[in-house]
Write a structure and sequence with these properties.
19% strand, alpha/beta, 642 residues, 29% helix, six-stranded mixed sheet, globular
């Protein structure tokens, strides 16, 4: 039996376990990346491990999230990351150099290699045939120290693409179509491989848009073949030597095959407040638009930006619309300027923002009250834009420009003849904004610089054999990490200060939660299906841990978040009967006994002391995960093992 692309890379990097679906495996990691919203904590964790130098082939620290420096906090974190990177063998991408996923694709990613990053959209690297995973900062810290990365061996899905995209239909529409088919939890436990004859019509930036959006499916990761199109991209980046061909075997077996004829697609749009709430753009014709944002790690490549410039050339955006454009990297911005396309964008009335995540994470450019904002981003969770009642839609760059020019949601196919852009023969190569690490000898004399906002990593507590505590919060389905630990300009600067950050925990759901959780001491949380979807931010586990949460009960969990909970020493368990969700009420006093035996046999009995009812729970942990929980989290486990 042949192997899929992902299985081939897994086999080559397998450290432990069997490639059997559902079993735990560990992988050797070749590269890591961090960004500053999660990176500060990851490097504090790395320092705690006491390892002098990273052991990966390449590790890169990016500054792309917390770039709005309204106080000392972000600047201090940047200085800390730069100094710790210099000392420990990590490349440092300065603020303004670009968004981590865009820059890594351009300058560092390699087909056939493994990559984990402390950002959920790290699977963008699958656009050039990397096996790339989003992970919590602790997992990244361990990988930088030479440790393995543990995952559950995924199922293999294949999407066969046929036909080719019609004018004004884009890779973003392919992404939205697969979300329409699978939903935000339809990819859980699977790696999605993209293949078929239609793949040959897609450039690397288009492929990267699709693998980036694969995160919203809940998939472990997504991957494309590495072929002549990949080789051409790497050649233009001056990195042809990094190319290797990668394809699945003809007799590879998949758990599910999905067919998409790109010729039949039309422009799609994800409506508030979920990436899978998808309809045809034409069905929303005439909806007034207040704001348009173009950019993010999903659609900020030179290919996307040249199309945007071509559509805007010689035109003015509607008086009623505010338009922002964020190029994905310094390379993209400079090349736009050199060819004159940037002038076309500026002349239209657009505001050009720096090469950073910006509005995607609520870091500025929030919409007006109840404003309709069309964004080329990957997420439209409630409140994520920074405006609590903002109505955020996800679209392609072409649909975004059409709305900016007309002032309403408009099918871009009505905008005239097809826009064609010519890509340059070579990209501008200038890595001056990437600072190389010191040599081992030089590193001995480097001081790590810490500002007053950087606080000690919170101490986790071992999971005891019994627990009696209050159910301090009950929430519904599809609770995202933005619900648990919001982003935005007011909160992100405190990512390295868990005590202060805790004031905002679950603020979207219940502003009284932090105070009640602290008063309760130990506590339970109850969630619905797909609990913890979205960002890889481990703060969504570390902050509840700091506030005393010991167990999270849910109908089901998102992959990265369940790992982050275990790493933080919080026990995630699922309801044996999902209908029992209705038998639990916020404020109930709950009890678990014989937790260690329950971990071993996979089942626990939850006693509701308030109602007198018993409820069955499922706890499926590997031996390693049980040891982590008993130790009080991954850091304590690693220290014990060493």
């Amino acid at each position: 039996m042949g192997l899929t692309i992902a299985q081939k890379i897994i086999k080559e990097h397998l450290r432990s376990g069997e490639m059997k679906v559902g079993s735990e495996i560990s992988l050797k990691i070749d590269q890591t990346l961090t960004q500053d919203a999660t990176g500060t904590m990851a490097y504090l964790e790395f320092e705690t491990m006491g390892i002098d130098r990273v052991k990966t082939e390449k590790s890169v620290a990016y500054i792309d999230h917390n770039t709005l420096q309204s106080g000392f906090e972000n600047a201090d974190d940047h200085r800390y990351i730069q100094s710790v990177a210099k000392k420990h063998g990590i490349y440092f991408s300065r603020p303004g150099n670009g968004i981590c996923h865009q820059v890594h694709l351009e300058r560092f990613g390699k087909p056939g290699k493994t990559l984990i990053g402390s950002d959920s959209h790290t699977p963008t690297g699958g656009g050039i045939g990397m096996l790339s995973f989003g992970a919590g900062g602790l997992d990244v810290a361990v990988a930088m120290g030479g440790g393995a990365y543990f995952i559950t061996m995924p199922k293999m899905y294949k999407v066969n693409l046929t036909g080719k995209l019609n004018p004004y239909v884009t890779a973003k529409d392919v992404s939205l179509e697969i979300l329409r088919i699978l939903s935000v939890k339809g990819g859980v436990g699977a790696i999605i491989e993209w293949g078929g004859e239609g793949v040959k019509t897609l450039s690397v930036p288009e492929r990267a848009t699709i693998t980036n959006m694969g995160t919203e499916l809940g998939a472990t990761t997504s991957i494309f073949p590495s072929d002549e199109i990949t080789r051409e991209f790497l050649k233009k980046q001056g990195r042809e030597e990094d190319y290797i061909p990668l394809s699945s075997d003809e007799d590879a077996v998949y758990d599910r095959i999905i067919d998409i004829n790109m010729s039949e697609l039309e422009p799609l749009i994800a409506c508030p407040h979920s990436p899978d709430n998808i309809v045809k753009v034409s069905s929303l014709k005439g909806t007034k638009v207040d704001q348009v944002c173009i950019g993010s790690c999903t659609n900020s490549s030179l290919f996307d930006m040249l199309k945007v410039a071509a559509m805007l050339k010689g035109k003015n955006i509607k008086d009623s619309v505010s338009l922002s454009v964020s190029p994905g990297s310094k390379q993209v911005l400079t090349m736009l300027a050199d060819c004159g396309a940037l002038s076309d964008i500026i002349a239209s009335g657009a505001r050009v923002l720096e090469c950073a995540c910006g509005p995607c994470i609520g870091m500025g450019f929030s919409p007006n009250s109840a404003g309709v904002s069309l964004r080329t981003f990957n997420r439209n969770f409630e409140g994520r834009s920074g405006t609590a009642d903002g109505q955020v839609y996800l679209v392609s760059p072409e649909t975004a420009v059409a709305a900016a020019l007309t002032g309403e949601i408009t099918d871009p196919r009505l905008m005239g003849e097809e826009i064609k852009v010519t890509m340059p023969e070579n990209f501008l190569i200038n890595d001056s904004a990437v600072i190389e690490p010191a040599t081992p000898d030089e590193a001995k004399n480097i001081e790590v610089l810490r500002g007053p906002n950087i606080k000690k990593f919170p101490d986790a507590r071992p999971q005891n054999d019994s627990l009696t505590a209050e159910l301090v919060l009950k929430v519904g389905d599809n609770i995202t990490t933005d619900h648990i630990m919001p982003a935005g300009a007011k909160i992100l600067p405190y990512r390295s200060n868990i005590p202060y950050l805790s004031k905002f925990c679950f603020g979207v759901c219940d502003t009284t939660f932090p105070e009640r959780a602290k008063a309760a001491g130990d506590s339970f949380i109850l969630g619905g299906s797909n609990y913890g979807q979205g960002s890889s931010r481990e703060h969504a586990a570390l902050v509840p841990m700091y506030l005393g949460v010991r167990v999270v009960i849910a109908k089901s969990f998102a992959r990265i978040h369940i790992a982050n909970l275990i790493n933080a020493g919080i026990m995630p368990v699922t309801l044996e009967n999902p209908d029992d969700y209705d038998k639990l009420t916020q404020g109930d006093m709950l009890s678990l006994e014989n937790i260690y035996d329950g971990m071993d046999n996979g089942k626990l009995v939850l006693s509701n002391k308030t109602t007198g009812e018993d409820i069955g729970l499922v706890c499926s942990f590997t031996e390693r995960q049980k040891a982590i929980l008993k130790a009080g989290g991954l850091l304590a486990y690693v220290a014990k093992e060493c």
